[in-house]
């Protein structure tokens, strides 16, 4: 096969593939976190809406307690020294459910202040 | 344990460290917290020695070994796979010793550099990307370098923002630097020569000094700056050090991740910041560390580095002797299938699609004859956007 043909195929497939990946990423829905289903969703990415009731900042790890039906522990690994988050803020957390010492907690990937 | 994580594509040291953290309450029933933390340090240091084996022989790189794949694979095709691994081991071991010797000085320097440069890391990386494009010889090559940076950067942005995707680096880096190289070898009907295991590998003293000093410098960057990984540091080091022979380059790339692991301990001690998964776990276990614990961890790292040197060289010899008995085309097909299965297992069907797209992008640098390191934009562009915007 000529190199120019190979280059065209590689370029077209790269572009088509990138577009396909982009559309797939927009179509994947993140389910809402259901705290009553203990250990069922460990490893899943979930979305959680609630009000911050407690923040414990330990440098590069921040522990956030979010009030829902029951308090949910959210763990945020961050290098941001100026984290603008305080008790009473309404937030939307996107992250992965992990089990720690028999309890579910969410390892946050993204936190958005909603009110 | 570090040998297992280093040899298994997709099994990242951070994952094992997190598993250890989750079972630490159980472990602490039998031993103390310092012992668990020492185990994590020893495992992490060993991993930085052994992970070049899978990059060299299987073409399955992690973020810290991606830039070593091409020169290491080229050496494998010349019967020098063992030498390639040996050079990365030399880099790891010498950089480990050098960093420990320099640690009293680094304890004072790290906080000063961190304060001075912490707001500019995005701009520094942007300058590196622009330089990577401009250093290509002709206008035509500059255009293709830009195209590769753009395609890889967009791929990185999509992959890192993909919900529910586990191990995003495995399909992306394996496609860009692993499967694409193996596919090209297949189309060129490459055959694998007998692998030799020479005892002596010669590197020019001047190039060795350049490689070790820039290895320590760029490894330090990783431990100082948040979000900067060994891969980005290797790109910066490649630009800083200029042209060096391929042997010295492998020494450089081999040393960076070991340096960054040691410097991460110093960063934890000096500015209480954890810069990688293993150190976060150590921090979770110990909160902060004092000078005595730092010295203990450095001793553990030195012992682990010494043992890892023998393990890595022995394992590499075993791989070389196996390679001698195999048909290279069949081996390439087998490795591509193996990587595909690993990606399917760890990252699912979406991961497989990422692998395919990344492979097509990874083919382009070779076809248009520009540097493959431009594909590292998949990691650089997301960090630049986070830090600059």
What does this protein structure show overall?
The complex is a heterodimer of chains A (115) and B (389). Chain A has 115 residues and is an alpha/beta fold. Chain A has a single domain, classed as OB fold (Dihydrolipoamide Acetyltransferase, E2P), CATH 2.40.50. Helices cover 22% and strands 45% of the residues of chain A. Chain A has one helix and six strands. Chain A has a five-stranded mixed barrel. In chain A, strand 2 (45-58) and strand 3 (61-67) form a beta hairpin. The longest helix of chain A has 25 residues, at 3-27. The N and C termini of chain A lie far apart (59 Å). Chain B has one domain (2-388). The model of chain B has no long low-confidence stretch (mean pLDDT 79). Chain B has 16 helices and no strands. Chain B has 389 residues and is mainly α. Chain A binds chain B through residues 1, 3, 6-7, 9-11, 13-15, 17-18, 20-22, 24-25, 28-30, 44-45, 58-61, 77, 79, 94, 98-101, and chain B through 22, 25, 151, 154-155, 158-159, 161-164, 187, 226-227, 272-274, 280, 283-284, 287, 350, 353-354, 356-357, 360-361, 363-364, 367-368.
């Amino acid at each position: 096969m000529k190199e120019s043909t190979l280059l065209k195929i590689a370029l077209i497939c790269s572009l088509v593939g990138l577009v396909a990946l982009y559309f797939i990423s927009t179509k994947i829905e993140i389910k809402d976190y259901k705290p009553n289903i203990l250990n069922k969703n460990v490893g899943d990415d979930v979305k959680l809406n609630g009000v911050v009731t407690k923040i414990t900042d330990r440098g590069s790890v921040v522990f956030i307690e979010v009030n829902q039906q029951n308090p949910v522990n959210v763990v945020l690994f961050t290098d941001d020294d100026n984290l603008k988050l305080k008790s009473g803020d309404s937030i939307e957390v996107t992250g992965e459910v992990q089990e720690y010492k028999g309890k579910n907690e969410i390892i946050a990937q993204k936190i958005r202040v909603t009110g | 344990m570090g040998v297992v994580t280093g040899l298994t594509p997709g099994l990242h040291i951070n994952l094992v460290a997190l598993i250890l953290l989750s079972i630490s309450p159980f472990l602490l029933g039998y031993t103390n917290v310092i012992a668990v933390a020492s185990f994590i340090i020893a495992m992490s240091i060993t991993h930085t020695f052994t992970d070049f084996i899978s990059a060299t022989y299987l073409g399955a790189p992690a973020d810290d070994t991606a830039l070593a794949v091409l020169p290491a694979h080229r050496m494998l095709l010349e019967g020098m796979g063992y030498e390639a691994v040996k050079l990365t081991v030399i880099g790891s071991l010498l950089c480990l010793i050098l960093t420990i010797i320099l640690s009293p000085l680094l304890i004072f320097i790290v906080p000063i550099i961190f304060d001075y440069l912490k707001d500019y890391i995005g701009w520094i990386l942007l300058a590196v990307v622009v330089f990577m494009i401009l250093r290509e010889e002709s206008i035509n090559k500059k255009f293709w370098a830009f195209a590769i940076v753009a395609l890889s950067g967009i791929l990185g942005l999509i992959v890192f923002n993909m919900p529910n995707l586990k191990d995003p680096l495995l399909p992306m880096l394996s496609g860009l630097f692993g499967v694409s190289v193996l596919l090209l070898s297949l189309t060129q009907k490459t055959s694998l020569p007998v692998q030799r295991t020479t005892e002596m590998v010669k590197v020019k003293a001047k190039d060795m000094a350049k490689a070790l000093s820039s290895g320590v410098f760029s490894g330090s960057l990783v431990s100082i700056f948040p979000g900067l990984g060994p891969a980005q540091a290797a790109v910066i080091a490649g630009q800083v050090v200029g042209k060096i022979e391929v042997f010295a380059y492998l020494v450089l790339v081999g040393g960076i991740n070991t340096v960054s692991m040691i410097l991460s301990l110093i960063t934890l001690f000096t500015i209480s910041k954890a810069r990688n998964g293993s150190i976060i776990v150590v921090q979770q276990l110990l909160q902060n560390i004092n000078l005595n614990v730092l010295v203990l961890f450095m001793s553990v790292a030195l012992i682990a580095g010494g043992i890892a040197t023998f393990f890595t060289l022995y394992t590499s010899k075993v791989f070389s002797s196996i390679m001698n008995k195999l048909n290279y085309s069949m081996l390439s097909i087998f490795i591509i299938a193996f990587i595909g299965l690993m990606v399917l297992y760890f990252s699912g069907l979406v991961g497989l699609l990422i692998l395919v797209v990344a492979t097509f992008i990874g083919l382009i640098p070779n076809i248009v004859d520009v540097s493959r390191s431009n594909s590292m934009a998949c990691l650089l562009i997301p960090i630049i956007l986070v830090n600059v915007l």
